[in-house]
Write a structure and sequence with these properties.
2 copies of one chain form a homodimer. Chain A contains 13 helices and 14 strands. By secondary structure, chain A is of the alpha/beta class. Chain A has 3 domains: 44 residues, 434 Repressor (Amino-terminal Domain) (Orthogonal Bundle), CATH 1.10.260; 126 residues, 3-Layer(aba) Sandwich (Rossmann fold); 151 residues, Rossmann fold (3-Layer(aba) Sandwich). In chain A, the strands form 3 sheets. Chain A has a 6-stranded parallel beta sheet, with helices on both faces. Chain A has a 6-stranded mixed beta sheet with strand order 7-6-8-9-10-12, with helices on both faces. Chain B binds a DNA duplex through helix 2 and helix 4.
DNA sequence: TTGAAAGCGCTAACAT
DNA sequence: ATGTTAGCGCTTTCAA
């Protein structure tokens, strides 16, 4: 541990008491300009920084937020993490990173998070969101789920408006003339997958299509490639496939083109969800519903800090809408696509 | 802050002193089995966890490691982060994440890092590696640079063997018959870019090729796309391009194919460095030198913890070799490519 | 083996 | 405006 210079040494050098030193580093404390200057000079000379650990002990707040993420291969999560860190740093909080347990041992993780006395927790799409969220909530620590919801009271969450997005995708594909559909699912247990899948099916059913071929991709690229082989290898293969996220859609496209020799979108239209970076790469040009990471982070941080700082006690459930961004991976309907801010979007 | 149950309450319930409670949670402390059981029962009943913050204050060590990363769009960094978090968690340390300042304000960042009394710092490829590393080192906190080096004494670093990798790439491209070369550079200031570029040029020069067209890509995809336009748009364009990393190589490939109408590798061979996930996607099938992130993390953690835990005081400089993985983005030499562990690698 | 007492570095009453 | 005192939750001598 470094920065061993303590406030006593600064106080001695400046010829004042430790309290005076403390006040210099406490915004809004009353201290004479002259004293402040002497203290600051001494502090600078000695290289003194108030010890945030000791401060936390008194304040009962650590100004640290635990963030638990499961998989970082899906570019959505690194984006999320980067923005979260920026946003928290800007507000004087810091991010303690935990990777979701591969071993499913949420208790050990929970113990570690609690031990650090974090002021709040962000759970980004880990398989154990629910269990952890409940425990933390019970322990009185504000929790916000990102890209998952949870029915329990007291747990805030921020998601895309997955149901509306999936409905838009259904309408879009129908408008392009598709009638045979496939769905590559994420983990069945995730609320995001459920929302995307059921809304997609419901909308198709409303419009007279009741059959949707389904394969599990489990949010991994290997799983999605397998799913693509099964789904697109059959004689009566679908001519439009909705993948629960872009990360899988990319693997499905690659498998369709490079393994199965299919043309996209001539032989099969493929659409995804999230609009992550690689979806925009010309090799994929994936039609996808955006999941606005910036807005989601802003809402998550606000929900968390409002509770931590006592401005509001209630949990908040936010659902943020996103555009259906039209690119080249799916057949394009004759009508309904307009250009907005340099992107083609679906506005039927 | 939660987990407000303190050791006093556990002590009272178990009918012992606070010291006894403390000893139960201190490995190797002497305590009667009977007492331990009573304490543990009480602790469990109350949901008590020792406060890591209070503990840090005494120990003078926080068991937190600060990690500073600059850009998370390049998949190498999320991979690094995930493994680092896992590795540290497994050893009882935790990762405090800082995003490298876009505003170039390293002082503010430094202050925050110091305030948290972190036990060590991992600097992953930020533009301010050197300045920060020096400051932290001066403050007595062990530092390890990943994917950068720094001449200063006392600073550990772990990098790929960039010079050897770049030489292998030069040999590989020459063996495939290329004679007109281009280089898309990362940030000129980064040691990694310097090593890759100079070794590439030196090796080509040794073999009689002295001209290499150079464009700046600045480690960003937008920059790389611009570089590709300039480099490949000219009449006497190179027929082989080495990009300082895969992240840029992907943008260069996309630009070549989709904007400039070039075939890869028939019209131009493109090679990168890092062997990140997207390099393996069939749409790119990028020939690249791997940067073994697992090994690099292991070495970085070892270097850091050996110093933190007093096993070794000296800084360590590690350079880890990686295979040149041969895929379809570059013309393939007639000889020298062999299959090892399911990959084609260059072993001249 | 156990408890009492001191103290990690800091801040927040409370005096002055 | 400043100093004195107490104490955040824990561990760690020191005695017993």
């Amino acid at each position: 541990m470094a920065g061993r210079i303590t406030s006593v040494e600064v106080a001695r050098r400046a010829g004042v008491s430790r309290s005076a030193v403390s006040r210099c580093f406490t915004p809004g404390a009353s201290i004479a300009d002259d004293t402040r200057k002497r203290v600051m000079d001494a502090a600078k000379a000695l290289g003194y920084r108030p010890n945030a650990i000791a401060r936390s002990l008194i304040a009962g707040r650590s100004r640290m937020i635990a963030v638990v993420v499961a998989y970082l291969e899906n570019q959505f999560y690194p984006d999320l993490l980067a923005r979260l860190a920026d946003e928290l740093q800007a507000r004087g909080y810091h991010l303690l990173l935990f990777t979701g347990p591969s071993d499913g041992n949420s208790d050990a993780l929970f113990a570690q998070i609690l031990a650090y006395q974090v002021d709040g927790i962000v759970l980004a799409s880990t398989s154990l969101s629910s269990a952890l969220a409940d425990e933390c909530n019970a322990a009185g620590i504000p929790v916000v789920l990102i890209n998952r919801t949870n029915d329990r009271a007291g747990v805030s969450s921020v998601t895309a408006d997955n149901r509306n997005g999936a409905r838009a995708l259904a309408d879009f594909l129908l408008a392009a003339g598709h009638r045979r559909f496939g769905y590559v699912a994420g983990s069945a247990g995730s609320s995001t997958n459920q929302d995307r899948e059921t809304a997609f099916r419901e909308r198709l059913a409303e419009r007279g299509v009741t059959e949707v071929l389904r394969e599990d991709g489990l949010y991994s690229q290997a799983g999605a490639a397998e799913a693509a082989r099964r789904l697109l290898g059959r004689a009566d293969r679908p001519d439009a496939v909705f993948c629960a996220n872009d990360h899988m859609a990319i693997a499905v496209m690659d498998t369709a083109r490079h393994e199965l020799g299919l043309r996209v979108p001539e032989d099969v239209s493929i659409v995804g969800y999230d609009d992550v970076g690689p979806a925009r790469w010309p090799s994929y040009a994936l039609t996808s519903v955006e999941q606005p990471v910036g807005t989601m982070v802003d809402l998550a941080v606000a929900a968390l800090l409002d509770r931590i700082e006592g401005r509001e006690a209630a949990a908040r459930i936010a659902r943020v809408p996103g555009e259906l961004v039209v690119r080249a991976s799916a057949r394009r309907p004759e009508h309904g696509v307009v250009r907005v801010d340099g992107r083609d979007v679906w506005r039927p």
